[in-house]
């Protein structure tokens, strides 16, 4: 049973050395050097060439090399009946919570403004926003959203969460479904998007949604670039509806030269680094799933195709 690494945009050497070291018995190949295709039963995927999976007739598992699976599900020729798994990792979860906290504090303490002032030699104290007065709303109460909520609560921020199905999380005001979106938005001074990208969440961060937030709200998007209608964000900021945004993900990555987000005084841009995957740390769960599949068991962390995440 061959494991095939199919992630042309990632550095294969690091993944291969960790997987070989931790799973020396695995027949691991790197696409396009795939050997006999009928022997490939387990594919590791990150932004694979669309349509490529159909060349492997005996596939038993497609494993995403990240938390998200949108890059796999967008393939119109996904082989039917093959489970798709995602990574779930405590260190990556922690890293995302750190990112969200840093973005929230950057806004409430005004560091971006002070940086601008420094560049102009301006000494201008501004009173920081107090955590207890800044209501944070997190879209997506899954692995990442829950942890981020706990981190923000521990810093004194009132936190609400919005999910597809109702949740009970201590200390978090819970909202669910389309009917819960309005009351959730109207109490979100800072809106954090940690949703998976699905047909229901694509372009959810648009003009209509911004209009339902309190005036001057702040947006943090660390999920996927396609959640956001970029032109609507620019209009909402220039019209004063939103005070600014911190973005880690973009419709086109890398963010193209000349894009209006570059150099925008109210937008913080980070290059999709909120939570990076460390091959050495996640190799054990990939190898464990390989052995499960080999033994005829269902892989762990398989996604639900109906839900799309
Ligand atoms: P999970 O699958 O654990 O959680 C998803 C959450 O979103 C759930 O609470 C789910 O609701 C909710 N949700 C899904 N669809 C809807 C909807 N239509 N309406 C309301 N709520 C919805 O995902 P993770 O927390 O692990 O990850 C979220 C995303 O973060 C990933 O898919 C990935 O795209 C992105 N990501 C970004 C990274 C970066 O570096 N920038 C790194 C890692 C991940 P319910 O609980 O009811 O199912």
Structure explained in plain terms:
- This protein folds into 2 domains: 2-89 and 277-294, NAD(P)-binding Rossmann-like Domain (Rossmann fold, 3-Layer(aba) Sandwich), CATH 3.40.50.720; 90-269, NAD(P)-binding Rossmann-like Domain (Rossmann fold, 3-Layer(aba) Sandwich), CATH 3.40.50.
- 31% of the residues lie in helices and 17% in strands.
- It is built from 9 helices and 12 strands.
- The strands form 2 sheets. Strands 8-7-6-9-10-11-12 form a 7-stranded parallel β-sheet. Strands 2-1-3-4-5 form a 5-stranded parallel β-sheet, with helices on one face.
- Helix 1 packs across helix 9 and helix 3 packs across helix 5.
- The chain is elongated.
- The protein starts with a strand and ends in a 15-residue tail after the last helix.
- Bound molecules: NADPH dihydro-nicotinamide-adenine-dinucleotide phosphate.
- NADPH dihydro-nicotinamide-adenine-dinucleotide phosphate (NDP) is lined by residues 66-68, 96, 140-145, 162-165, 194-198, 200-201, 222-224, 248-249, 272, 274-275, 309.
Structure ligands = NADPH dihydro-nicotinamide-adenine-dinucleotide phosphate
Count of alpha and pi helical runs = 9
Q: How are the strands of the largest sheet arranged?
A: 8-7-6-9-10-11-12
Radius of gyration: 21 Å
* CATH topology description of the largest domain: Rossmann fold
CATH architecture of the largest domain: 3-Layer(aba) Sandwich
Q: Superfamily at the CATH H level of the largest domain?
A: NAD(P)-binding Rossmann-like Domain
Termini, distance in Å?
A: 27 Å
Major sheet: 7 strands, parallel
- N-to-C series of helices and strands: EHEEEHEHHEHEEHEHEHEEH
CATH class descriptor of the largest domain: Alpha Beta
Contiguous low-pLDDT stretches (5 residues minimum) are none
């Amino acid at each position: 049973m061959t494991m095939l690494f199919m992630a042309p945009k990632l550095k294969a050497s690091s993944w291969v050395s960790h997987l070989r070291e931790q799973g020396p018995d695995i027949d691991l190949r790197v696409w396009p050097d795939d050997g006999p295709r009928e022997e490939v039963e387990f594919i590791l995927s990150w932004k694979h060439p669309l349509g490529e999976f159909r060349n492997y007739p005996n596939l038993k598992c497609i494993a995403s090399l990240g938390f998200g699976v949108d890059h796999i599900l967008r393939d119109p020729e996904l082989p039917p009946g093959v489970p798709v798994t995602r990574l779930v990792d405590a260190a990556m979860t922690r890293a995302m919570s750190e990112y969200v906290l840093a973005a929230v504090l950057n806004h409430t303490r005004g560091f971006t403004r002070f940086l601008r002032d420094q560049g102009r030699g301006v000494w201008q104290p501004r009173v920081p926003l107090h955590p207890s007065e800044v209501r944070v709303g997190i879209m997506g109460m899954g692995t990442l959203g829950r942890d981020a909520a706990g981190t923000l609560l521990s810093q004194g921020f009132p936190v609400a969460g919005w999910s597809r199905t109702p949740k009970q999380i201590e200390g978090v005001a819970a909202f669910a479904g389309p009917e819960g979106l309005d009351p959730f938005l109207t109490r979100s001074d800072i809106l954090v998007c940690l949703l998976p990208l699905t047909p229901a969440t694509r372009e959810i961060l648009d003009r209509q949604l911004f209009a339902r937030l309190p005036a001057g709200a702040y947006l943090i998007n660390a999920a996927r670039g396609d959640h956001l209608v970029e032109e609507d964000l620019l209009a909402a900021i220039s019209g004063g509806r939103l005070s600014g945004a911190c973005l880690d993900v973009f419709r086109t990555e890398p963010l193209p030269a000349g894009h209006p987000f570059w150099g925008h005084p109210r937008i913080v841009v980070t290059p999709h680094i909120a939570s990076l995957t460390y091959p050495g740390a996640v190799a054990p769960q990939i190898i464990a799933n390989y052995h499960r599949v080999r033994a005829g068991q269902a892989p762990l962390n398989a996604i639900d195709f109906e839900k799309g995440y």
